[in-house]
Design brief:
Blueprint lengths: L20 H17 L5 H7 L1 E7 L2 E7 L14 H5 L12 H5 L9 E6 L5 E4 H5 L4 E9 L4 E11 H7 L8 E6 L19 E5 H4 L5 E6 L2 E2 L9 E3 L12 E7 L6 H5 L23 E4 L6 E2 L7 H4 L13
Parallel strand pairs: 2-5, 3-12, 6-13
Antiparallel strand pairs: 1-2, 3-4, 5-6, 6-9, 7-8, 7-12, 9-10, 9-11, 13-14
Bound molecules: ligand MTE.
Length: 324
């Protein structure tokens, strides 16, 4: 059972993109009233009451704890059109509409994940077996793209730290590398040289162990759509969106800093660290403000995307302007 303490940087359900919120709010109020009405329901029981079944696959249904606010049962919640149709997934093309337009041949099942490199318990697992031992929860997170748009998404996923610990990284492991599937027949832009394929991203080991980092298998209570990174993607909400590799098939513990796709392609524009930082402009635009999809006015971008309380300590003593 996961019980999280509410922090100032937590996002309210009312901020979820876009305003499919009415349903969420109504359910949350209903759930709170039901909980308050029963004096037998205290702390842990209240959290247990706020869990919903999440169908990972035909063979695996788990209980996902809503650690923030109650979300509706998955069959009553829809993924908003914006989040579903406005995507970055370079394997399907460069335009925002390309992933949805070209997703037709992509098969997110069956799926295996290999965990290898500097760890004591490497292995290759079917996705259900990979996910099954872990506790699922809903995490409402801001996502800030380096292109200055942002969204707020209720992800359904598992703690990346728990996954890292399960495979027992060796003392020499310093980084965790994530590799996206390589299937040019299903992902047409992998036949082009837009990026060096497969798409690779990485975190430092301490970042991967930060409690905020998640491997998401769902969003809005539903299994991830292909264009959003089915069947499993990385979510590190204090970093620019490109750090969150979609459709991953390999997790590797390394001593040396991995070569990552965007950093390799345009190092001046895509730093390895990629912490959201309004003070470090992209060479071609300011990062000081952002446009939340569905909103008219731009809003200020927050240092570490508003998650400084949870992550700033990991960068103490670092020059975040030089090491962007
Ligand atoms: N993962 C892969 N494999 N390929 C990509 O092109 N784009 C990244 C990230 N993960 C990308 C990826 C970028 S730039 C962003 S902003 C987010 O995915 C976008 O996620 P979304 O389309 O679900 O909003």
């Amino acid at each position: 059972m996961l019980i999280r303490i509410k922090k100032a940087s937590d996002v309210a359900a009312s901020e979820i993109t876009p305003q499919a919120i009415y349903l969420y709010r109504r359910r949350f109020i209903a759930a709170s009233l039901a909980t308050m009405g029963s004096s037998a329901l205290g702390g842990i029981d209240a959290a247990r009451a706020a869990s919903s079944p999440f169908i990972v696959s035909p063979d695996l249904t788990v209980q996902s704890v809503d650690t923030y606010e109650k979300l509706g049962p998955q069959d009553e919640v829809t993924i908003p059109f914006t989040v579903w149709s406005y995507n970055n997934f370079a394997e399907f093309g460069p335009e925002k509409t390309d992933p949805l337009a070209n997703i037709g041949n992509f098969k997110p099942r069956p799926w295996t994940i290999a965990v290898d490199g500097l760890c004591a318990k490497p292995g290759t697992l079917d996705l259900d077996a990979f996910l099954k031992p872990h506790a699922f929860e809903t995490r409402i997170y801001r996502l800030r793209c380096t292109e200055t748009w942002s969204i707020v998404v209720p992800w359904v996923g598992i703690s990346l730290a728990d996954v890292v610990k399960r495979f027992e990284p060796l003392g020499s492991a310093k980084f965790v590398r994530f590799e996206t599937v390589m299937r040019p027949e299903e992902m047409p832009a992998q036949k082009t040289s837009a990026l060096k394929w497969p798409y690779v991203e990485a975190l430092r080991l301490d970042e991967a162990l930060n409690p905020l980092a998640v491997l998401a298998a769902g969003m809005y209570g539903q299994v991830l759509p292909g264009q959003n990174g089915a069947p499993i993607r990385v979510v590190a909400p204090w970093k620019y969106g490109f750090k969150g590799a979609k459709s991953i098939v390999r997790i590797t513990f390394t001593e040396d800093r991995p070569v990552t796709s965007w950093n390799l392609r345009i190092p001046k524009e895509y730093g390895f660290m990629a912490n959201v930082n309004p003070a470090v402009d992209h060479p071609r635009w300011s990062q000081a403000t952002e446009r939340r999809l569905g909103e008219f006015r731009r809003r200020p971008t927050l240092m570490f995307n508003g998650y400084g309380e949870e992550v700033a300590h990991m960068y103490a003593g670092m020059d975040l302007i030089k090491d962007f």
